[in-house]
Amino acid sequence: MARIRFNNVEKKYANGFHAVQNLTLDIQDKEFLVLLGPSGCGKSTTLNMIAGLEDVSGGALLFDDELVNYTPPHKRDVAMVFQSYALYPHKSVFDNIAFGLQMRKVDRAEIDKRVREAAEKLEITHLLDRRPSQLSGGQRQRVALGRAMVREPSVFLMDEPLSNLDAALRISMRAEIKELHQSMQTTFVYVTHDQAEALTLADRIVVMKDGVVKQVGTPDDIYERPENTFVASFLGSPPINYIDGTLKFAGGGAQFLHEALALDLPEAITAKLSGQDGRKVRLGIRAEDVDEAAAGGPGATIHGKVNSVLPVGSDQFLGFDFYGNELFFRVGKDLAHKVGDDVSLSVDLNRLHLFDKDSGASLL
Length: 364
Ligand code: ATP
Fold this sequence. Notes:
Elements: E1 4-12, E2 18-27, E3 32-36, H1 43-51, E4 58-63, E5 66-67, E6 78-81, H2 93-103, H3 108-121, H4 137-149, E7 155-159, H5 167-184, E8 187-192, H6 195-201, E9 204-209, E10 212-217, H7 219-224, H8 229-234, E11 241-250, E12 253-258, E13 261-265, H9 267-270, E14 280-285, E15 290-291, E16 301-312, E17 315-322, E18 325-332, E19 342-347, E20 353-356
Parallel strand pairs: 3-8, 3-9, 6-7, 7-8
Antiparallel strand pairs: 1-2, 1-4, 4-5, 9-10, 11-12, 11-14, 12-13, 14-20, 15-19, 16-17, 16-19, 17-18
Helix pairs in contact: 2-3, 2-4
The site of adenosine-5'-triphosphate has 13 residues, from α1.
C-alpha cells in the first residue's frame, strides 16, 4: 500500500522563499498522479518532499497513516528517476541497475534475477555489459528506470524523466512508462511541464502555479472543465481564445454579447448562470471548437479576417483577427484560406467556457 497525503503542507526554503503553500492532496494507492505547471511552480519541491530530499516546513505528510515528515529518504520505500538519469559513468549497465540492491546487501542471485527481469521488461538485456557513455539517450533513460524498478518500491517518483529525449522517443517512452505503471501496480508521482505528457499518462493531474494548486482532476476534468483561466490556458494547442463581454438574459434564454459577436448560450450553460444578467464575463473558445462547414446561424457564428495560416500536418492553425484581438483556431487542412480573407466560423456552443472577468474563476 502506498497512499500519500499532504495535509496543509508548506515549504519555505532557507532564504524565506515560500515554494509550496498550504498543499492538501490525497494520492491514492496505485494512482498515476502528474504534477503539472510552469517552471518554478513548485512541482519538483513537492516531489522532493515525498522523496525526503526536502524537509517539510509545516503541515503533515503521511504515507498510509504514518507521519513521514521526519523520516529519512532511505526509510521511505520510494525510488526516484531524475531528468539527468544520474547514472554512474564507470559502472556497467548491470551494476548501475544493481547498485541500490548491492548497497542493501541483497543476495547476489536475487540481484541477478531482478536486474535481468527489469532489463528484459525494458528490452535492454543486450546492453547490460556496456557503460552509460556507450548508450543513446533513450537507452540511458531505460537504465535509470531499471534501477528504480529493481528496488520494487511502493512509490515511484519521476522528475521530468523524458525531457532530454527527442520528440519521437518521448512519445514511445510515454507509452512504456504507462505500461510500466500497469505492470508494477505501484503509486507513481510524475513531474512535468508538458501538457501532452500529463494528459496521456495521468489518472489525475494536479495543476500548480506559484506554489499553489489551481486544480486537481482527471485529464478530462482538467481539459474539458477547467476551473479557472490559468488551467484553461495552460492546456490546449494553440491555447484557448478569450473574448470579454457581457451576459444578457431575454425571453427565457441567455446570450454572450460583445460589440461584434452575439452567441446564444445553450440551456446547459444558461441553467448555471441564473440571476447573472449583465455580468461581465470572459468567454473561452478552444482552438478546435470551431468549424467552417455548416455555418451555425447568427447566434453561433464568429466573423473575422485571416492574418496567418500555419499548416501543422493534418490540421492548420488559423490566426484570426477579431475586432483587434488575435485569436487562433485549429481547422482542417483542406480549408483553403489566404491571409486577408474574411472568414465566418461556426462555434460549438456546447463547448464554450465562461469565466469571471476579474478573478478568472469558471462560472460553469
Ligand atoms: P522547474 O520545472 O523549473 O524545475 P518546478 O515547478 O519544479 O520548476 P521547483 O524546483 O519546485 O519548481 O521550485 C519552486 C520555486 O522554489 C522556484 O521559484 C525556485 O526558484 C525556488 N527554489 C527551489 N529550490 C530552492 C532553494 N534551495 N532555495 C530557495 N528557493 C528555491
